Task: inverse folding
């Protein structure tokens, strides 16, 4: 009676949806096994066991749902359709049907699930923004109402439907939108299975590197459809990494990026994949159900496979002393180099692994327990190979990682410290204080890594001889020269290094020159950070460093006057 009155139709629809959302009847009732002849206690125990409740029969309400109500409601999802395109979609009705389906057994729900998902996926083909938004929202709410295990089917149906033209932009936008809703609602657990990880990785790699990226670069359809105006790929990879089952999902994402890195022929593609892996690191570090043991094994495997591809001497074996080789090493060395040399851009994969272990430490995902430190030892021993490389970006990341590891109680610290100091000298000799972002980053990483070596290594029992042998006038001269630059980061790194030298009471003539420079900056620097750090360091110098009465008086008079 309300078919010709749109207002009445809308009111009845809203009333029906409200009733369905509040549906609270049981669709099934458990069937208990009849007690068999025998001991009463045995019958009682069996009746209380979980197995006696495995059989269910539909209630009259459940029978009506499957035979009448749900089929009739499914025909009401698409209200109007003209020329093969959806003009109006009853999204609230679709969500209400999904809530009803969630009450059915899987064996009865799965056969009729396509009749709900297919119309919603087809509605995403519409050229009307409102219809696409309603369909997307309905798909997200329906997937939440059902179960996470059906998400791969829903996304797969969308991928099949949205396979050409502007619809590929709609697909990437929608595949990001739906998991983002799941991520917000289920942030306390890993809900994404391997099928969803693989599908999402393929979709977003195509958005960033494939035909979808080419269409966006050409600005086709960018003014007509909002889905074509923005890229969601990087955000999506972070969501995938934070929501996936790490044991299987990490390998899927890593393998997909590795395959494209091996075939990359332009720096643009490499930079895109670097950003994908960086965002994946952020997501993995916040994955709520990631086990740290699994993460350590994954990181070590990546380093073991790809560090030899980045070394300046790929035939070098880790874990042996200098010049120590075996007959087997000599026989297999050439073969191993030939195999690993085939991996192009392997340094990007090693950077990914090192960034992941650093991010896990920053996030506090593992304590420095005896068990964790024992698992970190093999990773620590792979660091020299990451430092002895021609790739500046990898050297930077490896130095930052070494800086963190130096502060842990690891047996291999001394072995790695030798390489850290050698690499730092090589970096400074090559770049100096180059006025570029890369040069400054490398300089800071080198200086901070040396600071960690000097501050943390052999704190107990040793150390003046070791410090005097390793930290010499060259490094103090470099630290002093950094004050001629405008970079505050370089200056703070230099102050930290000079502080470690003063605290270790390393007696070198250059220390006094550095102390004079620090005192001057403590009074005259424009930056309040430099002034504060300079005052603190000057006080430490006056109180802790060996000074003659004449020199002590000179410094005190400087501050007084």
Result:
């Amino acid at each position: 009676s309300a078919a010709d009155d749109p207002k009445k139709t809308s009111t009845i629809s809203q009333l029906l949806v409200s009733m369905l959302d509040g549906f609270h009847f049981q669709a099934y009732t458990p069937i208990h096994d009849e007690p068999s002849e025998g001991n009463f206690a045995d019958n009682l125990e069996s009746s209380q066991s979980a197995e006696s409740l495995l059989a269910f029969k539909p209630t009259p309400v459940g029978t009506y749902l499957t035979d009448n109500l749900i089929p009739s409601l499914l025909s009401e999802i698409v209200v109007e359709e003209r020329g093969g395109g959806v003009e109006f979609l009853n999204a609230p009705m679709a969500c209400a049907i999904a809530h009803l389906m969630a009450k059915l057994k899987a064996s009865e729900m799965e056969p009729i699930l396509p009749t709900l998902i297919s119309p919603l996926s087809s509605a995403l083909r519409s050229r009307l923004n409102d219809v696409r938004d309603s369909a997307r929202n309905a798909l997200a709410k329906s997937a939440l109402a059902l179960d996470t295990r059906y998400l791969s089917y829903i996304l797969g149906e969308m991928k099949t439907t949205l396979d050409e033209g502007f619809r590929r932009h709609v697909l990437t936008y929608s595949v990001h939108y739906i998991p983002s809703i799941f991520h917000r609602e289920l942030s306390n657990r890993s809900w994404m299975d391997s099928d969803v990880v693989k599908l999402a990785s393929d979709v977003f790699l195509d958005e960033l590197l494939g035909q979808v990226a080419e269409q966006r670069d050409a600005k086709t359809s960018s003014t007509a459809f909002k889905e074509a105006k923005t890229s969601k790929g990087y955000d999506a990879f972070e969501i995938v990494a934070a929501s996936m089952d790490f044991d299987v999902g990490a390998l899927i994402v890593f393998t997909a990026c590795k395959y494209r890195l091996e075939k990359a022929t332009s720096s643009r593609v490499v930079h895109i994949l670097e950003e994908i892996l960086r965002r994946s690191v952020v997501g993995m570090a916040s994955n709520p159900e990631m086990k740290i043991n699994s993460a350590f094994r994954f990181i070590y495997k990546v380093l073991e496979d790809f560090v030899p591809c980045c070394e300046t001497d790929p035939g070098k074996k880790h874990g042996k002393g200098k010049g120590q080789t075996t007959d087997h090493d000599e026989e297999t060395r050439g073969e191993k180099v030939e195999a690993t040399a085939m991996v192009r851009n392997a340094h990007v994969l090693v950077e990914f692994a090192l960034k992941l272990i650093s991010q896990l430490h920053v996030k506090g995902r593992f304590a420095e327990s005896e068990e964790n430190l024992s698992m970190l030892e093999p990773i620590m021993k792979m660091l020299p190979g990451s430092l002895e490389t021609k790739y500046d970006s990898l050297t930077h990341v490896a130095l930052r990682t070494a800086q963190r590891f130096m502060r842990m109680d690891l047996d291999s610290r001394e072995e790695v410290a030798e390489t850290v100091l050698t690499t730092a000298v090589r970096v400074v000799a090559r770049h100096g204080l180059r006025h570029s972002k890369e040069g400054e980053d490398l300089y800071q990483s080198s200086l901070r890594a040396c600071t960690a070596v000097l501050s943390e290594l052999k704190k107990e029992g040793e150390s003046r001889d070791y410090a005097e042998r390793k930290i010499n006038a060259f490094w103090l001269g470099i630290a002093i020269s950094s004050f001629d630059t405008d970079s505050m980061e370089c200056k703070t790194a230099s102050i930290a290094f000079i502080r470690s030298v003063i605290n270790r009471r390393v007696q070198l003539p250059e220390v006094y020159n550095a102390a004079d420079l620090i005192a001057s900056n403590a009074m005259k620097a424009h930056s309040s950070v430099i002034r504060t750090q300079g005052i603190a360091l000057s006080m430490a110098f006056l109180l802790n460093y060996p000074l003659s009465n004449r020199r002590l008086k000179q410094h005190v008079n400087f501050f007084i006057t």
About this structure: The longest strand covers residues 78-82. The CA atoms of residues 305 and 340 lie 8 Å apart. Strands lie at 28-30, 56-58, 78-82, 85-89.
